[in-house]
Each structure stands twice: as C-alpha cells, then as structure tokens.
C-alpha cells in the first residue's frame, strides 16, 4: 500500500483483530483508513464508489462474503 500512494485503501475489517504490529504499520500510512465494520448503507456507498474491492483471506475452502458484495454492487473484484 505504501508503494501505491495514488490510491486510497479503506479497510473494513475489525482493526482490533489485526496483529498489533500490522495495525500500527497500517495506521502510519497516509493512504490507508481503518474503518472497521460500517453500517450497510455506508459500506455499500464505499463499494459503489470504489475502483475495486480487494477481498483477501489466508483460509482455504471458504466463500468470502466481500466477494459477493462487490459483485452485487458491480465493483471490480480482486480476490485471493
């Protein structure tokens, strides 16, 4: 994210669930906002105004809901 200063990243995961070292690093970046969970309308507005949604996980065999939400809002999707 630091190498992409022309983009703004909004992270809607619960920041308290992030490892503290990662949370501190992300908070230090000027193009990253740790929003946590948002009300449905606000979340949908973010998706609809975004260039893309990055839906990342390190777990196997799951259906990430963020992927369905991005697709249903006609937002480009990048999924891990």
Task: Please describe what this structure looks like.
The protein has 3 helices and 4 strands, in the order E-H-E-H-E-H-E. Helices cover 31% and strands 18% of the residues. It is α/β, with parallel strands linked by helices and 80 residues long. Helix 3 links the parallel strand 3 (52-55) and strand 4 (76-79). The strands form 2 sheets. Strands 1-2 form a two-stranded parallel sheet. Strands 3-4 form a two-stranded parallel ribbon. The protein has helices at residues 20-27, 40-48, 65-72; strands spanning 9-11, 32-34, 52-55, 76-79.
Summarize it:
With 80 residues, the chain is α/β, with parallel strands linked by helices. It is 31% helix and 18% strand.
Highlighted features:
80 residues, alpha/beta, two-stranded parallel ribbon
Topology record:
Layout: E1 9-11, H1 20-27, E2 32-34, H2 40-48, E3 52-55, H3 65-72, E4 76-79
Parallel strand pairs: 1-2, 3-4
